[in-house]
Design goal:
Number of strands: 19
Shape: globular
Structural class: alpha/beta
Helix content: 40-55%
Radius of gyration: 29 Å
Distance between the termini: 55 Å
Length: 552
């Protein structure tokens, strides 16, 4: 037996919190002891535990950036490790995407992975499949956690509690509420007073510069100081429309009484809102030849031709459009086709579409890091602020800033979000926002009225694919039977089908939950059918599934 291959085993341990790590015998020690005992039981197979310690204490499993894990991966690349041994799968990772990366790295290095408490390893295809199933539940748990946090934020705001995010000018954070910063509050009161006196935001901005009113100065950890500048018109308008200063809390389109002190009395705040609405109504009645088209340079049609702003006037009223550029550059040519879309309809439709996408749990799962609850709460707070911007007075401008490109095709609009803008809005590193997670599609329908074509985003009546839904349910039942130990041959016999047919249908059982939800309400891409699934190999990784299906 001396020629038996020696399998060098690296024991990896991890604990999410630092609680109890100072004890003589802690969770990491317990994990290591269990792994050592398992390796000892495999001594006849040539297994031997390496003396090095790969321990990550107080670090989340939602990221691969862990010191001990990175050191172990370096040793694997160097050919020093043949097998990773962990107490449970989630000690190594809680993310399907990260797990896929680890498996790929292990396969390249000729190494594998085994869990002590779960009797399988990645050296076999069935082991990898089972791991994917278990990690799917871990990922589902993360999605449910994100939804639960959002529900908790909504309930807390209904009670008037401050739920984090960027602390507004005039206040400082004080636990679950806010306290007034008097020097800044004085500036807020001055801005409100100036608006009641002058009647326009432009005049308030000019006067505030003369009074040398400035924004808050912030200092980053690097020592860089930002802020301390004069107020812009957008910032002033945001202050004048923020119910927070009247002692209230906004959540989406609803406003609740807050538990923080007000800087502006309710009567003053409501008087300002009446004046702002009246001013906006007057502005809509004017024919403004310089009215902006915020989506300029961002809209393209299915041919790659950009949609350029255009307008027409009728009875003193100006109507804006986005039209295919060829209709302008090649005007007069016969049989020339292109798009002619009402500008306001598409701008407001995109604003609504973005809000719907940002509120989807599937979107949160794709972009939110697997962080602790406190960090997720802060990010979700910033997301809530972003959604408020997309439903506020300047929603079309804010929507355009968040969109990198929007492409119109047959019955569908595909939208790419701007990674730079989204990373700043959510306070996330750009590297954490993968390009494929920032792309989504929205169905639309066209309504003709004379020469005008109206685009209605999301206006299509959902049409359920009963065949696809039925096959998903059947495949999930078959897979559950396999998990219970039933042979595929017996399943085929009971169903009156061939074994190859059963295997051909099994991909239906491994669709990501958000894709299944889309299918259940008829919102899946038109190309995603049961026939397509049977003719094409579907990736097990959910992120890869979304990428493939998004391109159908």
């Amino acid at each position: 037996m001396s020629d038996r291959k020696r399998i060098r085993c690296a024991i990896y341990t991890r604990k999410s919190s630092e609680e109890g790590l100072d004890q003589d015998f802690n969770s990491l020690d317990a994990q290591r002891e269990a792994c050592e005992a398992y390796i000892a039981s495999q001594k006849a197979e040539g297994w031997v535990a390496l003396p090095g310690f790969y321990d990550d204490g107080g670090i989340s499993g939602g990221t691969l950036e862990r010191p001990a894990l990175q050191r172990m991966l370096e040793d694997i690349d160097a050919g020093k490790v043949d097998q990773i041994v962990v107490y449970k799968i989630d000690r190594l990772t809680r993310s399907l995407a990260d797990f896929a990366k680890l498996v790929e790295k292990l396969e390249k290095a000729g190494a594998s992975f085994v869990s002590v408490t779960q009797s399988f390893n990645t050296a076999t295809s069935m082991g990898r499949l089972t791991l994917n199933v278990l990690l799917s539940f871990a990922q589902f748990e993360r999605e449910v956690t994100a939804e639960r946090i959002r529900d908790k934020i909504a309930a807390s705001k209904k009670k008037g509690l401050w739920m984090g995010g960027l602390v507004p000018f005039g206040y400082a954070a004080d636990g679950r509420t806010l306290c007034i910063v008097e020097p800044e509050a004085k500036t807020i009161r001055t801005l409100y007073k100036l608006y009641l006196e002058l009647g326009t935001v432009r005049a308030v901005q000019s006067k505030s510069q003369g009074l040398d009113l400035r924004t808050r100065t912030r200092e980053h950890k690097s020592g860089t100081r930002v802020g301390g500048i004069h107020f812009g018109r957008g910032h002033i308008h945001q202050i004048l429309t923020n119910p927070l200063y009247a002692g209230r809390i906004r959540h989406k389109e609803k406003v609740y009484d807050g538990q923080h002190p007000a800087i502006i009395d309710v009567e003053t705040w409501e008087s300002v809102q009446v004046m702002l609405k009246a001013q906006a109504a007057r502005g809509r009645l004017k024919v403004n030849a310089a009215e902006p088209s915020p989506l300029i340079g961002k809209l393209f049609d299915e041919t790659g031709d950009r949609l350029t702003p255009s307008h027409a006037s009728k009875r003193g009223v100006r109507y804006r459009y986005y039209i295919s550029h060829r209709l302008v550059s090649q005007s007069g040519e016969k049989e020339l086709t292109g798009w002619r879309l009402p500008a306001r309809a598409i701008e407001e439709g995109l604003a609504k579409t973005l809000v719907e996408e940002l509120e989807r749990p599937a979107f949160l799962t794709r972009v939110l890091p697997s962080s602790g609850a406190s960090e997720l709460k802060q990010i979700l707070g910033r997301l809530d602020v972003l959604i408020s911007e997309l439903t506020g007075v300047n929603k079309t401008v804010n929507t355009a800033s968040l969109i990198a490109v929007a492409r119109i095709g047959a019955g569908e609009m595909k939208i790419w979000l701007d990674r730079d803008v989204l990373s700043k809005k959510l306070g996330l590193p750009k590297a954490d926002l993968f390009e494929e997670s920032l792309v989504f599609s929205k169905a639309f329908q066209l309504r003709k009225r004379g020469v005008e074509t109206k685009l209605v985003l999301g206006g299509l009546q959902a049409e359920l694919d009963q065949t696809l839904i039925r096959n998903i349910v059947v495949a999930q039942k078959w897979f559950e039977a396999i998990r219970q130990g039933k042979m595929i041959e017996q399943i085929a016999k009971d169903a009156g089908l061939t074994k190859s047919r059963i295997l051909q249908m099994m991909d239906h059982a491994f669709l990501a939950p958000d894709i299944v939800k889309q299918i259940a309400v008829g919102e899946q891409p038109i190309g995603l059918t049961s026939e397509w699934l049977q003719r094409n190999a579907l990736p097990i990784d959910w992120q890869e599934q979304r990428q493939v299906i998004a391109n159908l």
